Fold each of these.
Amino acid sequence: MNRELIRQQLTGSDPFVIRASDGKQYIAPHSEFILIGRHNFVIEDARGLLDIIDPLHIVSIRPGGRRKTQKAG
């Protein structure tokens, strides 16, 4: 993905799941935990750890909000 397409996908306040070309998934609690540089894409997780990815290796970005389930009864 290119930087502009990544920026367009990062809207809203829900968590995001970013999937890389090697199959790894990265969870960002909010778009403010993501930095898009000229040559790098940096994700800070909820524990404060950083993952640095080349934007060319990002294959998908999707909202990662928890789904609500209904109780049986």
Amino acid sequence: MQKRKTRELLYSPDTLKFEILHTAVNKLGLALKGTLIDEAIRRVREDMARVGITQLNPNFYLSNSYGCVAGTTNIAVGFYDCSEYLRQLNKEIRNWLYDPADILQIIRHEVGHAFCYAYKLYRTKEFRRLFKVKGHFFNTYTEHLGGRANPWSADFVNPAGDYYAQKHPDEDFAETFSVWLTPEVDWQDQFRSKPGALKKLSYVERVVSDFGRQGTLLNNGGSNTLDMPVEQLSMTVAQFLGAKTAQMKTYRRRATSYVDGDLRELFQGSPRNLPLHRFRREYRRGARFLRTYKRLLINRVSYWVGVEDFVVSDLIDKLAIRARATERFLKLADSEKKLIEVTAYLTTLCRNYRDVEQYFRRQ
């Protein structure tokens, strides 16, 4: 079935991208379920079950980056991999993108951290000797940041080709764990010429055998999270990604039906410092207002402009969706006045569509 022109305009990829860029991260309504990250987590959990890690159950949550909170089993995952549009924007603005294989390996790596912390391996003499821990395991991390990697070292795995294992003993273990956990890797054969790395891989196999079916020494729940969970990210996606003015102008030019700016003129934001009982008595959501008068607006505008009902209906639906997403309100006392304003607005845009098959005329 062919998608009708009105919906192509109202929900064009460039329009949706521009809306996302102007939306606060914590208003995107993101969830892990059904994402590339969710699939990677599922596969890593299968890997864990296969090797006998049955008691470790990391807490995964959406955040502004990937990482395991030091000393816990809480694992943050990047919200920018939660949808295809977010992934495209990340690639277009920040010029990099994790492919599904990258995400899978990152999750294995972070689970390696969680395993290390869950059984406090970093406190044992063998771990400290093998991974060359000097001083406090966590507090010495910054001391390693300026170190230069040795590309010829036989003591480290290097799955991504970035020598990340040489950054700190904590990363060394996590990288080693991720390689060992990857079912496609024959680590005994692949690292036979790297005795140092091979010893670490053999160590991972042994500690997993020793501790994998034992209860963990941590019970973190969902607290103690890294950086910011998405619920606390009030900046817009554009601000988070660092979109430049020229980039934003390009997205704006390509957007065929961006209505958020007009909705800010038609409706107000959520009133501040107003008691809840007064708010409920005196205000109504813009989205509800549009739904309530939808049939009336369709009948009047389609008749006077001379367009099919769906031209008006699809536009009202779009306005209602964005009014809800951007939390627009109106005073109940202004309902009659607002109905006139909305009718005039719909009439203008639907007349544009009648004349040039565009709701917004190009400048």
